[in-house]
Specification:
This protein is α/β, with parallel strands linked by helices. The protein has twelve helices and eight strands. It has an eight-stranded mixed β-sheet. Helix 10 (216-221) links the parallel strand 7 (201-207) and strand 8.
Length: 251
């Protein structure tokens, strides 16, 4: 485990680092998740086993600190991720971000393109105000007070199912709510526009069970490779690990 400071109050973001050669590969989890839990089985595969791997837990999640006076915007998360890559000397890395982590990876590529050689986004949020059925929308529908101290966190944990709840319960409720709220609000420019204009090679993975990707033609016209992953839903790395690992290796 390694750590580095991500704000001016000494808060630490932490990651698990597996030594190896070749391009550094950085896994970034989604909202209410943790990187090792979602990606360690991928990193252990023979085609990735020799690479240097970083499993990063974003602020407020997993083993990273959870300051109460932190805004937890997508830009804040991206800057914290940049601090990891600077501390690890991982410039020009392959960044593989899932869901909210994909959005954070896009913002990182926009703000610090020197750190990102390849971008693999798996079902990342690209637009503001996702459908009410999205997990981030459900969390953001509560006020911060209702979610943190009014029982909202417990109700969400009971609703999302045992798999997501297993990692969400490790996240700080305040950080979770603020992260979800800013994910719903999006960025300026919005994440989709950042992805379209990013200068590095970009791959977007969409599970076939999630349906067609809105705006796919526009993304492809901008040079983004969009790949539909068979037999997979939102959690592509669990549903079709072969296809997910192949995409990361090809990146």
């Amino acid at each position: 485990m390694r750590q580095t400071q991500f704000d001016d109050r000494g808060s630490k973001i932490r990651w698990i680092e597996a030594p190896g050669d070749g391009p550094v590969t950085v896994f970034v989890h989604g909202l209410g998740a943790a990187s090792t839990i979602y990606h360690s089985h991928i990193a252990a595969r023979p085609e990735l086993a020799a690479r240097k791997i970083l499993f990063v837990d974003l602020p407020g999640h997993g083993i990273s600190d959870r300051p109460v006076d932190f805004a937890y915007t997508l830009e804040d998360h991206a800057d914290a991720l940049a601090a990891v890559l600077d501390a690890a000397g991982a410039h020009g890395a392959v960044i593989a971000g899932h869901s909210m982590g994909g959005s954070v990876a896009i913002v990182l590529a926009h703000r610090r393109p020197d750190l990102v050689a390849r971008l693999v986004v798996t079902e990342g949020n690209l637009d503001r105000f996702p459908a009410p059925t999205a997990g981030s929308s459900g969390i953001a529908s509560y006020t911060e007070e209702e979610f943190v101290r009014g029982g909202g966190f417990a109700r969400v944990l009971a609703h999302v199912g045992p798999d997501w709840a297993a990692t969400m319960r490790l996240a700080d409720p305040l950080a979770l709510h603020r992260s979800a709220t800013h994910l719903v609000r999006g960025t300026d420019p919005v994440m989709r526009e950042m992805l379209e204009h990013a200068p590095m090679k970009r791959l977007y993975l969409q599970g076939e069970h999630s349906g067609d990707l809105p705006g796919r033609a526009r993304l492809e016209a901008a040079g983004v490779e969009v790949r539909m992953v068979p037999s997979a839903g939102h959690n592509v790395m669990f549903d079709n690990p072969d296809a997910f690992a192949r995409a990361v290796v090809e990146a």
